[in-house]
Prior knowledge:
The structure is a homodimer.
Chain A: H1 3-6, E1 10-14, H2 19-28, E2 33-36, H3 40-49, E3 54-59, E4 62-63, H4 78-81, E5 85-89, H5 93-99, E6 105-109, H6 114-121, E7 127-131, H7 140-155, H8 164-177, H9 184-191, H10 193-200, H11 204-210, E8 220-223, E9 228-231
Parallel strand pairs in A: 1-6, 1-7, 2-5, 3-5
Antiparallel strand pairs in A: 3-4, 6-8, 8-9
Helix pairs in contact in A: 6-7, 7-8, 9-10, 9-11
Amino acid sequence: MGQAELAGTVAVVIDVLRATTTITHAIANGAECVIPLLTIEQAREQHAAHPTTLLGGERGGQRIDGFDLGNSPTEYAPAVVAGKQILFTTTNGTKAMQACRAAKTIYIASFVNLTALCNELAEHETIQIVCAGTEGEITREDVLLAGAIVDQLTADAQPIDRNDQAQIAADAWQEAKTELTATSLAQRLKSSRGGRNVLRIGLEGDIEIAATLDKFNVVPRLDPSSWQIRDHRTTPQ
Amino acid sequence: MGQAELAGTVAVVIDVLRATTTITHAIANGAECVIPLLTIEQAREQHAAHPTTLLGGERGGQRIDGFDLGNSPTEYAPAVVAGKQILFTTTNGTKAMQACRAAKTIYIASFVNLTALCNELAEHETIQIVCAGTEGEITREDVLLAGAIVDQLTADAQPIDRNDQAQIAADAWQEAKTELTATSLAQRLKSSRGGRNVLRIGLEGDIEIAATLDKFNVVPRLDPSSWQIRDHRTTPQ
Lengths: 237, 237
C-alpha cells in the first residue's frame, strides 16, 4: 500500500513476530514511550543526544551491538523499562510504521492486546491494516492477526465492509479460530515465516508469548507529529 | 512476484473471473489455441495478418469494439471456437500471463478444471502460483482457487512445503471448503472484488459457471516459446 492511500487514515501496524508484540510489552510495562526509527544510526544519534534513553531492536533477529535491549518481549520488563524512553529499530516493523507516517493516527497491534485494540478501533469508521511482513512479502503470522481484528470488529453490532485482503485475512483466521487453544495459535505462528526465523535464533519462548491473547489492556499508539508511541489513554487523539 | 523469481519455474496463472475460466472453456470446447496478448492493438495487428483467427477479450469487462467475442465463458461454445485460433486480451489475466513469460511452462488454472490441473501439477516439484488480481491487488476469488490447488496437492500422498502466501490461501480455502455446496462457492465468488465487478455488468451467470468444479478434463498450458495456449496433451513439455 502506498503512502498516498494511507494519508489521513487510521492505520494499524502489525508485526506479530516480534516488533509490535515487543512494543506492546514495553508500553504495558510502563515505558514512557517507544520511538520507532528506521536505522541503527538514527537510534545511536538520538541516544547520544539523550543519554537517558534505552536503545532497543534487532538486525537479523539479534540484539544490535551496543544496544541495551534486543527484540524479545521478555527483555522489556517493568524494572527495565518503567519511565524510560526507548529508541527502537527493527528490520520490518519500524519500516512499516514509517510507511504509515502520512496517516492521521497509527495503532500498534498484537495478539497480546487484541481486545483492547479492537475496542478502540470500533470507534473509527475506516481502518487500514498494514502487515509488516518479511522482506516485502506478506507473512502468515501477520495475516492471522489482521483476520482476528477483522473478525472481532465484525462480531460487533454493526456489519462492516471489508476489501478482499481483509476478507482473505478473516477467512484465514476462521480456520485458526475453529481450533483455537492455548497452544494451537503458537503452533501456527511457529510454522509461519516469521516464526521459522525466530525458531532459527532459538527464541521459541518469544513466539509463545506473542500468541498469548489479551495479556494486556493497553493500546500503543504512534502519534505522527511527535513520532512517539504511547498508550492511547495518554496521547491526544 | 518479479520476473526473476519466475525464471525457469512451473507457473500457474489464476484469473478466476474470468480470463482463465474463459480460456479453459475455449480449449475444452475445441479451440486450436488461445494466444494471450497484452494490448488491443497487438490483437488487431495479429488478426489483420491472420484473418481466420477470432478476436476475444474485454476492457472494463465489456467486449472490445470490433472483437468477435467478449470474456464470457458461454461465448466460447464448440460451434464458435472449434478449430479456431483465438487472439485474446483482458485487463488483468493476460498481464499476469505476460509476467510469467520467463517461466519454463505456464498452466492456466480455474475451478472448472481443478482436478485435471492438480493431477498434472503433482508431476512437478516446485510450482509458483500467480494470482492476476485486479489493478495490482490480490483478490479473494483468485486466492480461493490458489488455496484449493494447494489443498488438493497436499491431499496427495506426499506432504508439500508451502510458503506463507500458499499457506494463507490454503487457510482461506479451508473456510470455504467446510461448507462447500453447489451454490456456496458461487456465493463467495460473487462477494469477491472480481465478482462484484462481474455483477456490476450484469453477468451473474458467468460467476456461477466459474464456480462449477471440474466441469472439464483439460489442462490449458501456455508454451513460452510459441506463446500459444493449448491442452497440455497436445503441447510438448
